[in-house]
Amino acid sequence: MAASTRPGTDKVQRVKDIFKRYDRDGDGFISCAELQAVLKALGNFRDQDIGAIFSRIDANGDGKLQFAEFVDWLVCDQVSGHDARARVVLAPSDDDGLAGAFANFCGTGHADMDCKTFTKLCKDVRLIDRHLSVTDVDLIFTKIVPKGKRRIGLSEFEQGLGIVAERKRLALDDVRSLIIEAPSPILTGTKADAVKFHDDRRRYTGTQRATIGVHPQHVEVVANLGTGRRRTEMHPALSNYSAPQRQVSPLWGASAQTPKDVFYAFCGPGVGDLDGGGFAKLCRDCRLVGGGLAAGDIDIIFLRVALRGQRRIGFKQFEEALSMIADKKETTHEAIEEAILQAAASAAGHNAA
After folding, report:
1. Which residues is 233 bridged to in the sheet?
2. N or C: which end of the chain has fewer CB within 10 A?
3. Between the CA of residue 289 and those of 165, 244, 312, what are the distances in Å?
4. How far apart are CA 304 and CA 321, in angstroms?
């Protein structure tokens, strides 16, 4: 492995101390088992990732890491992904340990962090409260992420912690300490927050109040009959209920063959861009909400893709928004475009019927 400039004499002793710490049996070499024990303890690395890292450090292929090989790997400029993260974990800089904690939370194969991971970190260290909501964290990420990027590095992360500390009226050192002293990322499923107006049936109004105590079989709504048509059987208790009129979706009048056709259908006649309300309606009408994408996420995504000082987006920004939606829903950009076209086709079929 080609190396760049070797560390100065003032750092040699520190690197030697690091190497000696990981050489647990004191034989002057770091074995794959020793490296595996360290990386699993410090950074939640997988066995196959550790094996690949070991092979890249072991330049002469003798199955053991020598001090010179370890130093060459530490100072090599051409590292990324697993190697970059492992290097921060194994040999953190002279700071207080924030770089190592940051690398630990970045996740497998990454040396930088996306919005979802940044939010999870804030949750895991219990920074989320009435002074700092999840939406606040998303907006902070939007403010610190480099233009045109979707992930942040250590410098942007430190900037974000400064904003968090200011928002929570805490000392920055206290916030840094929470991150540094945090255990490995907590891998748990998301638990839905209690919804007051849903869980307390006494607060129901309209249709919901009228159906309290009514057997579900007596009020039946069956969706997706053929081309999007719905069949409803109304319970006698609701015979006098008039549902509010819903605004007709632009999909109904659209002849959409591409996502661009759908975009311009929601822009309206003679308009080439889309405001936040229109973007939110497009997402709802195309059934993108759910599966990891909340209604609040739509507004945040719109703010992230809109040009500075603008309140409307063009098709180029719309494409960027679809990619962000795909990330939220943990799917591909192409799958989101296909969902949009399927919604348009369903609406066209309903209109024809």
Report:
1. 220
2. C
3. 32, 22, 20
4. 8
pLDDT higher for 18 or 332?
332
DSSP state of 224: E
Q: 250-352, what's its fold?
A: Recoverin; domain 1 (1.10.238)
Predicted confidence (pLDDT) at residue 318 exceeds the cutoff of 90: yes
In this predicted model, what pLDDT tens digit does every residue of 287-317 receive, in sequence order?
Answer: 899 888 888 889 889 988 888 778 899 999 9
Q: Architecture of 113-180 per CATH?
A: Orthogonal Bundle (1.10)
Long-range contacts of the stretch 96-102 (C-beta < 8 A, 24+): 96/176, 96/180, 97/180, 98/154, 98/158, 98/176, 98/179, 98/180, 99/154, 100/42, 100/180, 101/179, 101/180, 101/182, 102/154, 102/157, 102/179
Tokens of 115: 């919005």
Q: Give the CATH class of 9-91.
A: mainly alpha
**Residue 141: half-sphere exposure toward Cβ, Cα within 13 Å:** 27
Domain borders along the chain are 9-91, 113-180, 250-352
Q: What is the pLDDT of residue 163?
A: 92
Q: Is the pTM of this model over 0.85?
A: no
pLDDT at position 244: 43
**Among residues 194, 131, 123, which one has the least CA distance to residue 165?**
131
Return phi, psi of residue 232, to 5°: -125, 130
